[in-house]
Amino acid sequence: MGKIASKIWSKGLLGGFGVPEMHEELRPLAFWSREDLISAYQRFLNTAEPTMDRHAFSDAFQCFHDTAQSDAAFRSLHPKKGKVDGNTVFAGAALTSNQCYISRVSLIFSMFDLDNNGVLNKAEFCIGVRSILTGLHTWFAGAVMPADVELEVALDDLFKRIDFKKSGSLTLGEFLVFAYRNRELQEMINNLPSEDMRVFENMVKFQRVPIYVTGDGHTHHHSHQASSQPGSQPGSRPGSSNSVHTPRPLVEPHGPGRGPRSQRCSMVVPVPPDTEKPERPRVRRRTTTACPHLHPEPADDKGTWCGSVAYVKLTGSRKRASSLRPNRVWTPPSDISKAHAWLLWRFFRHLSGGKATADAEAVQSFFRDPISVRKEFILIAGDAKIQEPWAFTEASPDEASGGLEFAAEVDSLSHQFQRVFTDPHLRQRLEDMGSGPITVRCFLCNSLPSLTPAHIESCLAWCRGFRSLEVLQQLGELEAAELRDDDLALLFEMLDVDASGDLTLSELVDIGQLPEEKAREIFEKCRRQEGAAALTINDLRNYVRSLNLALGSDVKGLLESFAHTGHEKQPER
Q1: What pLDDT is recorded for position 403?
Q2: Which part of the chain is the EF-hand domain (predicted)?
Q3: What does each C-alpha distance from 423 to 4, 8, 104, 411, 417 come to in angstroms?
Q4: What pLDDT, in 10s, does the model give residues 527-560?
Q5: In Å, what is the CA distance from 69 to each residue of 24, 108, 300, 489?
Q6: Could you tell me where the DSSP H helices lie in 451-536?
Q7: What is the pLDDT of residue 294?
Q8: Disulfide-capable partner of 1 in 79, 158, 337, 502 (CB 3.0 to 4.6 Å)?
Q9: Where along the chain do the CATH 1.10.238.10 domains lie?
Q10: Residue 510 carries which DSSP code?
């Protein structure tokens, strides 16, 4: 990917302009916000078609002033037989959207998770990269499209590099670690301007509409009634063995009238010419885990279950993926120790000033002073002697001895990290990042390049636990007014060990490590119903909103009093 990414803008940059030149007709599709682009892509998915004609294109984006502007943009995308590939169009729109670098990457990963199982297999990965490069080549006059042979070799090598576990699929964590560490990819995407500096490292779950493709080549939505098809029996599904139609021959290598470039969007699976045609109609069904109630019964439907049209074209079949529903009961990760994670977490919280992200320029300025770096690690090692976070997670015969072991490990790691974080090479890597926000994941990827994606995910899991303890401590103070909904959701994720959907007093004391008196105080403040035995997340949200309203009224009253005093007392002349 490095060679391909470095060559994609070579013609344009050598031509004399630093920013790639976009086609004027496609400018209405660029610089979209993340929220608007997600809504537009969902409208495209609701059509259950891999391609868009002129009307579907206009309905999906809804950003054109008139029909002439919409038609001009559609022609600039070089439609074939009056249609354009939807994945290619939205890949270009995501790259040119008004988002920071890593937010674009996470959104593209979500778009090409065609079966909604949370990972990208090799077919989905290849579809995504090809759509990105084709989109850039279509949108920009100076973009250089690599040759097919070069691209095939690069994609195979790139997939193996990102797939660190050699599992045959890419997780979002592996994808983000590669994106943070690959300078060529950053240069390729960062040449496209953006203003929104919010960082989104989470995945977007899209709803993909299931469709049925019958042997006659017609596409039927699940909501259509079987009676709308001529010759079908009452109660039969379109494409089932009860409906009467003629099977479509599947002998063309790329589908009817299709070439290799449109192969990934074909609805037809290629079959060798000497293969016998099935006696019954062939049924293709596209569905996702987002619509479990539409999965076919094994006794009635024997068609091929697939996650997407493009996936079936490249792989021919798909095994049903296991459920990836997260377990609400949090368990400590074993890939990295608590002392490692706590030391890095506290150091990052100092860099960010207690916020979720740190400013890159402030971080670079701090690392230019090695003495300040050493002092901060010494202070963190001193704090480890006072209290150990999440002490219940590590069993020890004596609680006091367990705390001493944690403090000793933190002190030993502190000396090691002082040497690591004062290395000139680390300062240079941080300087190369430029400006913008830095998350915990970004900091770990760039400051400790030896960490594997599994280590980084384990460290982030520990950091979420440490953050939940901070949120719990803030609930009893006025700082609770600054808490967000995701902070409260994280608190429930970590403390609700019985997965009951609420927090009891014992969970606040035993899991949250609060003194019983303070836990009762928080419990009484947050619960809405008198005599309730547990707190729900809505109780916490209403409590935080009430604090915001109270602070707002206090500030308003204070300003009014100042204004009133200023009118009464005039300066003497």
Answers
A1: 62
A2: 100-135, 150-185
A3: 31, 34, 31, 19, 10
A4: 777 777 888 888 888 888 887 777 555 544 544 5
A5: 11, 26, 48, 44
A6: 453-475, 485-495, 505-510, 516-526
A7: 36
A8: 158
A9: 2-190
A10: H
